[in-house]
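Hi L.,

You mentioned the student needs an example of a multi-chain input paired with its predicted structure. This one should do, with 356 residues in total across all chains.
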Amino acid sequence: MTLDCDANATEPLRPEARAAILGALDLGGNASAVHGGGRAARGVIEGARRVLAGRWGGEVVFTSGGTEANALALHALGRGRRVLLGATEHAAVRAAAPGAAELPVERDGTLALAALEAALRDGPPALVCAMAANNETGVLHPLEAIAALCRAHGALLHVDAVQAARLDAPVPGDSLALSAHKLGGAAGAGALLVRGGLPVPPLLAGGGQERGARGGTEALAPIAGLGAAAAAPYAAARLAALRDAIEAGAEGAVVAGRGAPRLPNTALLVLPGLPAETQVIALDLAGVRVSAGAACSSGKVARSHVLAAMGFGEDAGCGIRVSLPWNAPEDAAERFLHAWRAMRDRLSSRRARLAM
Ligand code: PLP
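Structure written out for the whole complex:
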């Protein structure tokens, strides 16, 4: 049996989400239609909207996923502002903010607050983008402190909460991005939540759906799944115990961001000198699924910009991300460590032989 340790790429479908998705597929309908079928579909969409607004607060704009939600935030809130973003932000944010000024992170991966304050102090009004949790390391940025600095300097704050939305914790900021498939829903839906009545001019205008903020027929089934997944509980303490056991047993690995607050399910294990891709393939052959840095760039394994920003130098290409899914089995740590130790010993001795 394979062991899924790649939940930050996508969480397995939750049963609550599956039921909601199947119900919505059977229901069908276009939520913009005025007849009964349309009103039924509208009811499903509005139900999901209430769940999201109730949990995080703000006006909900449904999108196709986290990438689009981040792009919409940059488009809507970045107008007329200079954009400041952390060096470890996801590619979805970086690509949507060409020309943005990059802020350094500390060695533990958290945003360098002194650098943020200095950048906010001089220059015109800014939009700051800070991810709540990093997808590779799980490191949580000090969002309350970042939000306070933004308020003090008249800056807006957009938070990419795609990974951190699993946690039962409020997310500060003027907007936040979510993605269904990182919560145990299906890929195809996401949301941008916008607070304080800030206007959201659309990236995609189309038929004026989502109160004009996002054109296009709403993806009924994935949105229903997003609502159900967002209402499901997350067993953070159970996953943290499994993750801690993995880190404690991974002798010889450097755990990126170890000292910082992190997502409970994530460990980024760096084996200096051993390319991540080789580690991922060896573990896959042993039935354990992990990824090298960000899965979004699968196919092309490069040095992780996250590890590079944290000062890992040459070893920025030697980290594997272990991210436990919500339904990780009780023996996940044992099984992972069994495969990981065999991989480490085999690859290390091969490397030693080649160096001779
Ligand atoms: N932001 C973060 C932190 C992510 O981890 C991801 C996906 O890996 C995204 C944004 C993009 O989300 P989506 O896959 O829904 O487009």
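You could point out the following to them. The first strand starts at residue 3 and ends at 4. Confidence is low (pLDDT under 50) at residues 294-299.

Best wishes,
N.
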